Amino acid sequence: MAKKGVADYIRETQVWKSIFRHGPPTDARNRAAVVAGNVFLHLHPIKLKRSGVQLGYTWCMGGLTFFIFLALTVTGLLLMFYYRPTAEYAYNDIIALKEHVPLGIMREIHRWGAHAMVITVWLHMFRVFMTGSYKPPREFNWGVGVVLLILTLLLSFTGYLLPWDQLAIWAIAVGSNMAKATPFLGHGGPGAALAQIGDFVMVSDKNDVRFQLLGGRFVGEPALLRFYILHCVFIPLVVGVLIAVHFWRVRKDGGISAPL
Amino acid sequence: MSDESKKQLNRREFFSFVTVGWVAFTSAVAGLASLAFRYSYPNVTFDPEMDFIAGFPADYEEGVDERWKNGFGVWMVKQEGKLVALSNICTHLGCVPNWLPAELKFKCPCHGSGYYMNGINFEGPAPRPLERYKIALTPEGKIKVDKTKIYRYEKGQWDHPDSYLSV
Amino acid sequence: MKEFINYMADPIRSFPIMTILYILMMKYYRIIGTKKFAIGAVVASLPVVAWFCMDANFRAIILWPDNIPINIIIILIAWLTWYSLYRCAQNDARIEKGECPIEATPENREKVWTWPNLVYTELMCMIGATVFLVVWAIIFKAPLEEPANPTWAPNPAKAPWYFLGLQEMLVYFDPWMAGVVLPGIIVVGLMAIPYIDTNPKGNGYFTIKERPLAMWMFMYGWLVLWIYLIIVGTFLRGPNWTFYGPFEYWDFHKVVSEYNVNLSEFLWIKWLNMPMPGNIVLREILGIILTVAYIVVIPLWSAKTKWGKKIIENTGQIRYYIFIFLLLGMTSLPIKMVLRWLFSLKYIIALPEWELNL
Q1: Considering Cα of A119, then A123, then A126, then A132, what sign does the dihedral take?
Q2: Are B70 and C151 within 8 A, CB to CB?
Q3: What is the pTM of this model?
């Protein structure tokens, strides 16, 4: 009989056995058990077609998008410890993040990670199109994916305002003025001029979509707070739910696409 | 007893019951959603100052005066015997154009809209001229600019006597 | 030489060039989708890129921290587009010979264990991505400009890079079109793809031959109308959003005389030699007629053509009309760009009174 190593002793302790209910994943039974029994790994099926594990087919872009989303959640949480979303403090807190805090690349990782997530999500869509993976039965999941793509862009865009620097407010000024030009819903868009009864203007700068976005008529502190809440809580929540739907449907629609 | 209860809820009644239930549910959800929507529009907002006193008409020389641009977002433009308070918000997407004295034009850095000195757009994507604000004289003879009232060229409002000062 | 490249990079010339290159790429994808071509292209482009990077102005643009993601995405897209074409060419050659695509070979249909096959791939990707991000974060500082100042706009004022395609569209369209309607069409169009494209072939494997229409349309929108416009907006637009060649110094006083004319002014003043009519609808009548013709007559007419009949036969009336409206929305961008460049045409319909400009 072979000599027992340290690893084998650890595997036989009660603590180990209480956490991992199966042996090392070297045989069929345990390989199935490790994927099915682990809450994180059970996103995957136990077995899948060989074409679906090849990097040349999947490019791993969807998986990377999810991973970067998690990385952004963690770094974003850490950034929140040092950031106050007010016009008075925001800019100084961003400088402090660089100067007064150890590991001064947290903001860099968050920012470049945001860019990287936009890139991976686009390339994921590109791959899914190229392999025709949106075709039945995956039509609905493609739609969920498009919504997630938009939400990724919105997450990135709302994050842009938070440093409260020149780049931030002018990007938001341009963005919110596009909202102003929304037909019928923005006071500077087509249709708004027609929605007028005598002197009473139905769509004005006090009740259009731009006002709702900014919490006021100008890009100012209410806008900063709104974008902060949208960026840190609201959109990530929606994205989280939709990611769950997206992954669930990948499984239910037959896993990673493959020739019929 | 059981026979009676079966009679009380026949098929048609069941469906009308369900319909009423769904209508009530939908309207409740719609009502709550519209309340949440209204919640996002505060009743009070804190806007910057909308009017200011801009000195005496004699303070201004012919051409574009930028002294109120940073504080209030207004260019005072004196031309052909008229003094006007020109908005510095680009009519395209709300950036702030720059006055280029060498080329005698306002040029927006965001998308390249250009305006003549009088505010009329001539290049780039701007759909209409810059807006004028209401300008008037106080009893002391000082200029008062009121940004709550705007005058738009394409609506023919630049002939309005409040939209300029004759100097 | 640099002068010539600067000259050619102007969207007036580079947009048609890109379109032609795109058509050549899709037409000869079997030549491009070979390893020989890829090696040749890399070998040929390395000295060119090195020569480009010798130029201080070019270096200044590409090494601007906010532009790094675009450099990365350009490299990735070039590589992945070639790789897709390579896989498509491989599969299409097999299909022509009567074989199944590579993804459908018995070997690839075989089921394998998730652990370790998939899990290890994912682990490697995660480690790679982490290392990449950390290195990126160490090399390039996240940019931070001056504190916010609502009274002074920086020059040029650019949106985040992924919106620069839209910002470039804003040069040709009014905000309600470029900022609301066209993005809306993009989103709706993307979501509608699976319902319009009823072609059952090409599900789960790379192919161009079995789904040419879908490929040609999507790739054009994605590569030329989206990525190319982002590149223009990032690298070739300088102060005042005027065009600057890749080797050109961003001179704030570059004077560009650009006078754009509305269609109504062409009609009444240039062609009819008349003053502009007071009635605003009459004033814009030609533009309104053309627009209505574009969105009503073209779909009805094209439904009668051979091409339209075939699509209707395959997918049905409703799908056909949704498809054609989305297609018209997409082609409105290049049409408007070409009109602007050829005739300095500003708006086809100019109704600033109603905030309605097209």
Answers
A1: negative
A2: yes
A3: 0.90
